[in-house]
Design goal:
The chain is α/β, with parallel strands linked by helices. The chain has 2 domains: about 120 residues, NAD(P)-binding Rossmann-like Domain (Rossmann fold, 3-Layer(aba) Sandwich); about 120 residues, N-(1-d-carboxylethyl)-l-norvaline Dehydrogenase, domain 2, CATH 1.10.1040. Strands 3-4-5 form a 3-stranded mixed β-sheet. Helix 4 packs across helix 7. The longest helix is centred in the middle third of the chain and has 22 residues. The relative contact order is 0.11.
């Protein structure tokens, strides 16, 4: 599909929605563009990892009322500027107002995604959806990043499986400490989802480590570690990952 691509805000016209699909470490650099589109009336729909995006956007000058919550599950890779390659059949989207209301704008954008072939739905608890994805991706990234290995290597070893399970449990504990009503069997569900991944699967966090570039450590294990400290609970796996991988590079 051919689309117009630009890195200049003044070339962008008015829009109903601005969809953010960058890595979290690139959010600050596009902040001025996002703020400008919000000022022109666009609703801001971020599809970023982590659970701190709303606060970060507000710190960049985007009004809270302009921000929606968004969760997507899709496997894609940026091949070059303006070129993105889809690498998996799954493509699901969850969208919701931060206050849980079902509004015309969330209904419209969900319909647009469905018309494009995606599995899209509107949620009245987008905070829970965001945390469910966060638990999965933070634990998956932590274990594979620390082991420098794809998920199959960890699953086949008792200590590797224990690492995965404990990383999931710590993130679940943090979510509950922050008042997020996860399912009673959330840990088992997330471990089951990790078990269902092909053995050669690597999280993008590990790919970023291997490339020697910036990573999302701060908004994944770093966030679990910070939230655990605030709640007065223990998160030793995520503490260790944050400390061990803070230089963002493989040795």
């Amino acid at each position: 599909m051919q689309i117009a691509a630009t890195d200049r805000a003044d070339e962008l016209g008015a829009a109903d929605f601005t969809i953010l699909g960058v890595k979290s470490y690139s959010l600050d650099s596009i902040g001025p563009v996002v703020r400008q589109t919000a000022e022109k009336g666009a609703a801001i729909l971020p599809f970023l990892n982590g659970v701190e995006t709303t606060d970060r956007l507000m710190a960049l000058g985007v009004p809270r009322g302009a921000i929606l919550g968004g969760v997507t599950r899709i496997s894609v890779a940026r091949m070059q500027p303006g070129v993105v390659e889809r690498r998996g059949a799954f493509q699901s989207v969850i969208i919701g107002e931060l206050d849980g209301q079902t509004t015309d704008r969330v209904t419209r954008i969900a319909t647009a995604f469905r018309d494009a072939g995606a599995d899209a739905r509107v949620s009245n608890r987008i905070d829970v959806d965001l945390w469910q994805k966060f638990v999965f991706i933070a634990a998956f990234a932590a274990a594979c990043g620390l082991a420098r290995a794809p998920v199959g290597v960890l699953r086949e070893r008792p200590l590797g499986r224990r690492l995965l399970q404990r990383a999931v449990q710590e993130a679940v504990d943090v979510a509950r400490a922050r008042g997020i009503p996860l399912a009673e069997d959330e840990t088992a569900q997330v471990v089951g989802a990790i078990d269902a991944l092909p053995p050669g699967t690597k999280p993008s966090f590990l790919l970023d480590l291997e490339s020697g570039g910036p990573t999302e450590l701060d908004i994944l294990s770093g966030a679990v570690s910070r939230y655990a400290d605030e709640a007065g609970i223990s998160a030793p796996i995520h503490d260790a990952v944050t400390a061990a991988l803070a230089n963002n590079r493989l040795s």
